[in-house]
């Protein structure tokens, strides 16, 4: 909810160079959209926790089914909710320095990465303990591909945008790819979650799933909420009037970049 509170405060000090129409029709609705993502994301995490806790025995770290339960909770928390919030920081913290926003963006991705690693270790440990083959299903393949691409994306973003020494022309070239693959991997994470929900329901309640049992309904609701979360995050990020505006302290850097590149445009914010 920190994102929502920040937006409600900053929306009251919208910069004067924005047109009234844009302020009222565009930024005025942004806090509600961001608040919607937070409610949906938290609901997904809570429902996942309740599902694994109430229907499958809770959580442990002993190689049992309770350790497997750590896996879906970590993946929804890390590679969906925190990942989505990391994508949104450029829309929420509009009046903070760009470097601080970059650091927050990287830190949230790092937290998502750490939590994702815990989730992957949990499922591999469970498979080892139960003598189950690894990565045999489409869910496993998509999940591992998504996680590996996530790691590459995080490392490349760290190298291109946070560490000094990277040529501005290279940053300008890579930025659209970074934004595109960031959203693509969120979609891949969501698709993998949906595959995992179907797989878990199939293994758990195969014979009664068609009878609308409570666990089946809970899993289906979770899937719909995940889809809604992804759609809302994608809408916020791709809507042009929600884009972070240029700031005065960033203009000298832009002018310097244009001079170096003989009139080329500086990289815009994600």
From TrEMBL:
Cytochrome b561 domain: from which residue to which, for each copy? 36-238
Give the main localization category. Answer: membrane
Q: List the GO terms this entry assigns under cellular component, sorted alphabetically.
A: chromaffin granule membrane
Q: Name one GO molecular function term.
A: metal ion binding
Which controlled-vocabulary keywords does the entry list?
Cytoplasmic vesicle, Electron transport, Heme, Iron, Membrane, Metal-binding, Translocase, Transmembrane, Transmembrane helix, Transport
Which reaction is the catalytic activity of this chain? Fe(3+)(out) + L-ascorbate(in) = monodehydro-L-ascorbate radical(in) + Fe(2+)(out) + H(+); monodehydro-L-ascorbate radical(out) + L-ascorbate(in) = monodehydro-L-ascorbate radical(in) + L-ascorbate(out)
**Which cofactors, if any, are listed as required?**
heme b
Key word Transmembrane present: yes
Q: How does it assemble?
A: Homodimer.
The record describes the protein's role as: Transmembrane reductase that uses ascorbate as an electron donor in the cytoplasm and transfers electrons across membranes to reduce monodehydro-L-ascorbate radical in the lumen of secretory vesicles. It is therefore involved the regeneration and homeostasis within secretory vesicles of ascorbate which in turn provides reducing equivalents needed to support the activity of intravesicular enzymes.
Name of the protein this chain belongs to: Transmembrane ascorbate-dependent reductase CYB561
Organism placement in taxonomy: Eukaryota, Metazoa, Chordata, Craniata, Vertebrata
